[in-house]
Amino acid sequence: MIKRIAILFAMVAAMAFGSEKKITAVLDWTPNTNHTGLYVAKEMGYFKDEGLDVTIIQPANGTSDQLVASGRADFGISYQESVTFARLEGVPIVSLGAIIQHNTSGFASVEEKKIETPKDFEGKNYGGWGSPVETATLKELMKKDGGDFSKVNVLTTGDMDFFKASKNHVDFAWVFEGWTNIEAKLKGYDINYIPLNEYSDALDYYTPIITTSERKIIKERKDVEKFMRAVKKGYEYAIKNPMSAAEILTRAVPELDEKLVKESQKFLAGKYQDDAPYWGKQKESVWINYQEWLYENNLIKRKTDMGKAFTNEFLED
After folding, report:
1. Model's pTM, two decimal places?
2. How many CA atoms lie within 13 A of 308 on its CB side?
């Protein structure tokens, strides 16, 4: 009995002095409203309630997928397309939840470029990262609109700012509607926007997503359960309280434009869960359709079991 009481007091003392399990979550990019749920979970104490001490970092040496797969980060923010390629290469990372239920990315251009449909890409300069997926995506949209991709001049511009690029040689670029389009409005730019998911069901994939490694799920399952329980609460809070969530994000990352964050947060409040029965849910058909699209466009030479690329088990009510 005395021994049990001593153990109990030791546990209480440990909790009192902050002995939470240290966890690292790595972003895919600089902090933005795609990540708000993480920052909410941290400030509102949802992680702490689960006994976790979570540090949110930006990727430095390597991508979030590489950091998660190697064990240098416990969780990461990634994209369905990235995880698909990783699984095909035998990298055992798993998507735990879709941050946004439908693809909110597309091609944007300032209005003066007169690009209103994919056919209008003809004779224009596209600024991107030089990925074969970009080329295939442009071809897909242009084919459905009667356009000729061979008439597009593809430039590799990397992460150049959309607005700076538009003033130089770039006519259109691939952006997230919930960030760049809103930033354009705040800066007084009129832009045209062509959403991917309106032209192809296969391109309505999950982006971004939350990932971990298969090893983490097997060896430290309880930590995964706790982390995702807290993160789910964070995004549910952001859905119901977008202005308060925006304030939490800007307090955590004060260099962000407060007006942009607030407007973006209002937009994403209706996009995080959208038509899904609960936040984060993923459909196997979405994973399969995108892999089929990659295969049909000769971007991959074989297929893998997409049922192993994701799980809903840590989010189901």
Report:
1. 0.91
2. 12
